[in-house]
Request: fold
Amino acid sequence: MLKNIDPEKFALAVISSVSTNGDSPETIAKEKLKLYVAAFEEAVNYNKTVIAENKGQALKEFYGSK
Reply:
């Protein structure tokens, strides 16, 4: 079975691992915020896929055993 990703932890890890260039703190903050939101949304979408795939796999195992 596939595992879910914690969206908040994932997004924080992404923004921590990527350096952002900017001419002001505000520009850097905006870029980091965009990156955080994108990473968070990707994790949420991934989790939806994981839930669907795990459900499908569980149903196959359940009905396949009868």
